[in-house]
Amino acid sequence: MDPLTTFDGRSLEAVRRDLHKYAEAGWKEFRTSALLAAELDDLGYEVSLGEATVDPDERMGVPPADELAAAKARAREEGAPEAYLDEMGDVTGVVATREFGDGPVVGLRTDIDALERQEAADDGHRPAAEGFASVHPGEMHACGHDAHAAIGLGVARAFADGGFDGTLKLFFQSAEEGGRGGKPMAASGHLDDIDHLFAVHVGLGEPAGTIVSSYDAPLSNAKLDITFTGEPSHAGGEPHAGRNALQAATAAIENLYGIARHGDGATRINVGQVSADNAQNVICEEATMRVEVRGETHDLSEYMLGRVRDVVDGAATMHDVEYETGLYGKTTTFRNDESMVETVEAAAAATDGVDETVSKEFGGSEDASYLVRRVQERGGTAVYLGVGASNPSGHHTAYFDIDEAAIDLGVDVIVEAIARSA
Amino acid sequence: MDPLTTFDGRSLEAVRRDLHKYAEAGWKEFRTSALLAAELDDLGYEVSLGEATVDPDERMGVPPADELAAAKARAREEGAPEAYLDEMGDVTGVVATREFGDGPVVGLRTDIDALERQEAADDGHRPAAEGFASVHPGEMHACGHDAHAAIGLGVARAFADGGFDGTLKLFFQSAEEGGRGGKPMAASGHLDDIDHLFAVHVGLGEPAGTIVSSYDAPLSNAKLDITFTGEPSHAGGEPHAGRNALQAATAAIENLYGIARHGDGATRINVGQVSADNAQNVICEEATMRVEVRGETHDLSEYMLGRVRDVVDGAATMHDVEYETGLYGKTTTFRNDESMVETVEAAAAATDGVDETVSKEFGGSEDASYLVRRVQERGGTAVYLGVGASNPSGHHTAYFDIDEAAIDLGVDVIVEAIARSA
Amino acid sequence: MDPLTTFDGRSLEAVRRDLHKYAEAGWKEFRTSALLAAELDDLGYEVSLGEATVDPDERMGVPPADELAAAKARAREEGAPEAYLDEMGDVTGVVATREFGDGPVVGLRTDIDALERQEAADDGHRPAAEGFASVHPGEMHACGHDAHAAIGLGVARAFADGGFDGTLKLFFQSAEEGGRGGKPMAASGHLDDIDHLFAVHVGLGEPAGTIVSSYDAPLSNAKLDITFTGEPSHAGGEPHAGRNALQAATAAIENLYGIARHGDGATRINVGQVSADNAQNVICEEATMRVEVRGETHDLSEYMLGRVRDVVDGAATMHDVEYETGLYGKTTTFRNDESMVETVEAAAAATDGVDETVSKEFGGSEDASYLVRRVQERGGTAVYLGVGASNPSGHHTAYFDIDEAAIDLGVDVIVEAIARSA
Amino acid sequence: MDPLTTFDGRSLEAVRRDLHKYAEAGWKEFRTSALLAAELDDLGYEVSLGEATVDPDERMGVPPADELAAAKARAREEGAPEAYLDEMGDVTGVVATREFGDGPVVGLRTDIDALERQEAADDGHRPAAEGFASVHPGEMHACGHDAHAAIGLGVARAFADGGFDGTLKLFFQSAEEGGRGGKPMAASGHLDDIDHLFAVHVGLGEPAGTIVSSYDAPLSNAKLDITFTGEPSHAGGEPHAGRNALQAATAAIENLYGIARHGDGATRINVGQVSADNAQNVICEEATMRVEVRGETHDLSEYMLGRVRDVVDGAATMHDVEYETGLYGKTTTFRNDESMVETVEAAAAATDGVDETVSKEFGGSEDASYLVRRVQERGGTAVYLGVGASNPSGHHTAYFDIDEAAIDLGVDVIVEAIARSA
Predict the structure, then answer these.
(1) To the nearest whole number, what is the mean pLDDT of chain C?
(2) Three-class SS of residue C415?
């Protein structure tokens, strides 16, 4: 299975498998974006690419420039159409727009990034057995965004010859993992005229044939990267001459876990990655860590974030070191509009192959929340819906895969829902 | 043994026992100062009292005003001469000066405060058995400063009729315990014309009959009182609404003990008293602690003190609480002048009852260091000497006592040494 | 207002004021118990006293023997009837039983202990203005248990001449504050034949005239006293020779606050009192602290308690010190039986002076929970009800007081409810 | 400069440059050992190799088996003589013995391992400019052990035809960096018949032409690798279900830095590498760290090591995780025998090119200490001497290099000293 150099004429299943095999993690979706843009262009959509799809100041968790350059070079080698690669600059993502009539502006948001994890290689894993497991070490579509991209493309194809009396906008969003790409796309301006927005996720434990008309109550979440920088010295001869970044980091970690619970609802704090890399006889010069906070509400996660900042600031003062914090990613809460939920239910009821329609709590975090809120703040309505997909292993695991029947069924339901929104 | 209302005509042993029984802790030596001042005045010395003996801005570890008032009222009740009490204001201590001739200005520094500790009450303890154990609960002469005061008075008496061709200055210093009174007396101006200064300590493990011609290598030391102040809240209902002073204190303590050792020499850190006093269901509003740092040199203790300040400041920031730090006390290092050591050796050799003369390391901390340094900075010379006293139990313990023979012997040696300094 | 030497013939208001003035904190209610027992005896009830009212092995948070002895001596001085004092031994509390007929066994639980806090003394506080503020420093009825005791006595009086066809049991429980007396009384056996149990609390923010037919959803709670014991040493000379109890305590505190939140519901942790009392130059020998955990459910507070034990054990190991933990108190959750709630509602509806009947969440913790559970485990039913009391200041504050009209109204409603239970 | 396949016929400078270019870190010195063994064999020495040179139970800080296998395979590819590679098994190091006469058994210990660090590649660094910088990424002779190996070989050559009336033993020791190879070689038995032992180091800040007749007062040191292992869980959904290895590690680190200073002398503690590598939303499963302690004496470093073990054990208990500790390396103190120091001084005085002979404090740590002690315990004498080498940049830095004149001069002095030992 060589990399496709065009999606035109290929089934959505083939598109999904190609994206799965050449998985691109957040902010590295150069090939994905270029191939999608090429067909959307052919289909008659007006295409915005890369830098034009986000507010660049709002981008979070962007890998270093050399990693981005390597990812883009890889996309080029794997046959991504050059013209689109050139156009997108260093930023990924696509917004495709087409005006079919005077009706409302309806949007569909799908995310397109892979996860940073290694895919299973044994024959018990269908993508491996059938030759479309990721060939990019440490990058894998373990959350179904390959199917999301295919669904978005399917919807574009479905309306290629009209059938909807309004304007259709398709958002292929970068870097959903970690909550890095939603906020900048929401701030791009492209959402500002949307009347009705659909966002979609496959899988999440539901079987193929089930439609989730709304996912509710996502958690608000923020991820922070923190680096403490001190000064090294010889731990034997001059222990006093160093400024110990590790002592600052450990003081911070101990006190981060000690942030007071909140009386108004559930909060969470966790420190994931920690790294300090010195010889045993050198006072630590630099220590880095990655922190995540959550809250049942936006206010609760903001409370946690505020307390994290105090703790980190104080820890640096304690040990006379400098620090930098960077927001790695952020999501917020949202609520679905009842009218949109009803539209999805009606569309599902009208679609062959839908066995059941349910409504569920989300339980996780999603940066579609920023797009949903943007639309609602400007008077539009929105819904976050699900398409069951019988995945054999949990999301984010090495054996994640989906029942590909979900792709066409997802397209059908969404097309129907969009049509009903006009 | 009722409290004496005058020392005149009493033996030095009787004076010491009276001071022992009516022990006054640091900055509370109202009765001690008044009684000493009264006799010194009678003996023809010009007497400076209380406020006139210190730079008030330099006073450290001063008890609250109500405690001072109570101590002064107690002195009044116990028969301290009113006129002197009135004159000294809220500050204790005496400087007595008398010019006998044109020769050098020679000083003697003795400290007069008791310790804050309870004295043993059983008959195995001679002061209890013979009725002169402290009647002031929690105050006890457990370091021999009662004997120091008696020695100072003895020297004053010895020169009452001359016998020394110069000016004699006797410094009865308050609040040596904790290192609180030396710095302010050193800054008073009274030391500035001293040519030769003697300071004396009894006991310290040496038997009566032994003279220590110089104590060397004291440690530099600083004591800090720290109070963190946050805000209380109900730990069940609103744990987030408090600002937890105890979390700040514990973060501070953990990191204080973690202050880096210094490559240039020995340092010390300790947290003594810690107190937070809340119901279990209240987020802590206030936490107090007492910290001590030491260093082999002044620079090393200053290094520690600087690091303590960073840690405390950072801990407060971490937990969004306020804090105050107060210097409870401070000592520095000093060196003895060889010429003065020789004077002491010669005086000891010329004094009946002296069995042995030795030179020793001090091992502890002393705020006479500030007086010694003040004299030396202005061109004078100084020595810190010792008088053995066969104490049955260690300094600062509940059973501390001394062989009172040390008092007269101490007077003899010092009188001889002063005479030889002219 | 001299202390009463008998309650007979006194109004419930006078009884309450007498108990308020001679407030006795948990496990010290000798006078309260003796006076209640004397009248209950006179009224014809069979009286169990002190040791006979609890399983002594289950008692928690018992003050030291000398404190108990002093409290009992004080009760004697204040005129508590000697015979009952003698009978109760070192334990307080009363269970009074009387069989009126063959009907069900109905219980009423009231708690009788004061809080450990100082009462306000100014005229703005009615008990002070009218001469019945507590004369026992640091002990105060700031939670209305004086009124509870009076209500219990009022119910006993109401049935003195019958009017109820069954057996009545009145539980005057010690040491509710801190959750120390409920568990041992529940384990005494006295609850084992109860068919219907009422427990009552006054105030809690409701005005006089309001009856709370059930308080629901109390938190499960445990309080732990922890003492770390190391070895002292001189912080300057031999810092290594100590075993630092304070370092153990601070390591524990930091990590206690860091105990992971639980995914199944709300948990709480707090450290209230902390004390380490050393000179600054002594490595800390002993440090004590008081910890409280809570959980939305019994399992959640047990999770917290288990984690506390790990943390404390590990902290002691870290610093090579010993430790002891003692359960200071414990409460659990409970649910009210619907049939009992309906009985209270009906009784309230039938009682003059009741303006409104409501049902509420409790929000706090209560060791009546153990009595409720004991009854329910053996097939009985129970309810925890409230009597509004227009208190001018919050519970547990220095200005707490109640509208005494609540006492008679409480008696009326409970008498009616008991009568309806037969 | 292709890798040499034999040292025979090459100058010591060429040998040193070859070893420098194909630098092998501790326990990976397969090529170094094989090439040395081959020539020593040719020169008539009886050669012990690898496993036969150590007590395998005493080896510390041994890399994983796959790393060792890769290092050995690399040695094979780079032309190391196969027969010697085969003979040495998985262990490196050489002991070469030759009996020339009936005189004493004299030993020379040189160490042969490179450091784990990247060498500078720019032309300002002579090894890079002249083509002999290390071609093994992350391995570099930055401490002069390449020169030590060359000196050892030079001494072997010097005595190839006799000139010494005794037995010569040459110890080419593995893994000195980190103190990993000295203890196992000392326990091998090969040292047990040594009468006089020389150990040598080049550089250390002295210029070429200077001989250090003895390095004194090395620090005792121990390095520990610690891994905490808990259990992961989702930080949002089930934070309580994890067992947090990172919390254990941070509790340990805070308290490690807080280990009490020792009254008997200087101690040191440092945590170098720390690593925990989880996604932000996963409770940490594994955290690793590397710790180093030092002491002015063996007892002081043992005190620190004992306290480290307590802290780590307690931290694991606190957070209910498992842990493993492994000794990464260890050194001890030693003293030089005066007779041996005099021998070196005499040899230096008799050697052309020696400008100056000095004696110095060592300041660092050395596992030659174990060999020195072994010899002395069995009645022999030993000295640790230095050969100045005008290094342009500090030891262990990326720009370290030496004046190669030191090699021949070192050989001359040592040959003279050995000859004088017979």
Answers:
(1) 95
(2) helix
